[in-house]
Amino acid sequence: MPGRAIPGTALEQRGPAGVVPAGLERFYGQQLGWEDCGPYATTGSTKAQFKNKADIECARLEVPLDYAKPTDRTIKIGLLRQRAAKSDQRIGSLLLNPGGPGGSGMAAAASLTTSLGDLGDRFDLVGFDPRGIGASEPSVRCLTDAERDADRLDLDIDTSAAGIAQTEAENKDYADKCAERNGADFLEHVGTRDVVKDMDVMRSALGDAKLSFIGYSYGTRIGSEYAEAFPANVRALVLDGAVDPTQSDADSLVAQGAGFQQAFTAFATWCAARKDCSLGTDPAKANTAFRDLTLPLVQRPVDVSGRKLSYTDAITGAIQAMYSQEYWTALNAALTELKNNRGSTLLLLADAYYDRDEQGVYSSITDAFTAVKCVDDPRQTDRAVLAETARKYKEAAPFLDDGNPAAAALDACAFWSVPPTATPHVPKADGLPPVLVVSTTGDPATPYEAGVNLAKALGGGLLTFQGNQHTVYLQGNKCVDGAGSDYLINLKLPAAGTTCS
Question: Could you confirm whether 87 is annotated as catalytic?
């Protein structure tokens, strides 16, 4: 019956709150049914995170598929909440997105519940799975688990004319599968343009007149686009690991390659000081040593308990390890294993990148990443530009050079069933209150200057972290965590030029 909770579900109506766009009243003021998070788990890892945790609760938020047609089809957004520990001092909700695109905000929030410090006293932490992702319904699914396993064994590194043609045929087949299995009408509306509208519905339904938000990596794009669309509805934004809003996809890719090379060089220097370094004692020779270890996998994948470690999975596993210095010991061990024709640790690192659990079940992250990128970014179909980008990438990241001539196939987005809906631009957010951008000097995935540029574009404060990792806030650095939490709670930006290490 309408308005009656099913057993174990607590109905709650806190909205509408703040500004409500005409025609969307029923969404902005909707009831949410909070319940145990167990049924919201979509992979083995989230089952472990969500199971029997009394301090979290989950719900689904109803939103229009197409905001221009709010009376037509609706979809649902998964939410996970940990309530403020001190209800009498509660400020409001603090929304969270971990990036990707395709990452689960519900899983990210569940992993942070014991790391919040004062934030946990003052805010309801709310992680959400953006439309098409994780526990949101429907989720983007292009390949089956078996098809994804097979795809990881398909190298696609042959840059001859025949090799490029084969790769493009496979990319077209992938795009066709995505359209067939999800529907073009759904794929058209999975981009950031619609995600930020969902977030505004979320803000109101959770009872907040103004939005407080933490966005990591691609989540900084969600934050900056929300700021542009709803500047008057912002209370506070922490944007960590910024995506440069002005950069083309090609320039972003090359900058990321340089970032991975910088992180690999730092890893090689760290490794060379160890007696057991897999790459030898001379960091200047590390690029060659890494290639000598991994390139034989092109011809001879390594057997790993009934599976195979491919060359591309070895590269993916190494890149996964570049995201945080905490992975360096594991990467060194993995490369030592490879010397001995073993590949279990590298395959495990690659599985972590693709979010494949021990049962062989993949999350929606890889398919969602492609689906969002294909509608968020202008597609590139000029093969000369693609080849030049590939050449620049090889120059920027020599440790990843597979030895083939620089060339590139049209990617899946070139064959996508719906057009892109956005272009890179400097966000214009008149009336936006001060926001905080956190940028790390040795960030491999989102280079430091991108954070400098985003802070400038939004007129916000910049907090610099000197380190080698991708994102840092709420990961145990007292200086960063203290500054970020002081801003979120008290709306006080750190002093200009503040640097943590």
Answer: no
